[in-house]
Protein: Ferredoxin
Organism: Streptomyces paludis
Amino acid sequence: MKVVIEEDKCCAAGQCVAAAPDVFDQRDDDGIVVLLTVHPPDDLAEGVRDAVAMCPAVAIRVEQ
Ligand code: SF4
């Protein structure tokens, strides 16, 4: 799994961090998403898919 984020779409809602805190974080100053790992391990895949589904800005996608 490869995770791709589009920072310019992110509206700092934070749902991705709630769904997969080992994969996503938010910048302290403006809340924009920070990708902690581009290739998360399989045990985090479900959380990543949840984040993709929950992101209101459609700023996250998964490749492969
Ligand atoms: S859920 Fe989407 S909009 Fe919210 S912080 Fe994460 S990437 Fe940004």
The helical segments are 15-19, 45-54. DSSP finds two helices and four strands in the chain. Strands lie at 2-5, 24-26, 33-35, 60-63.
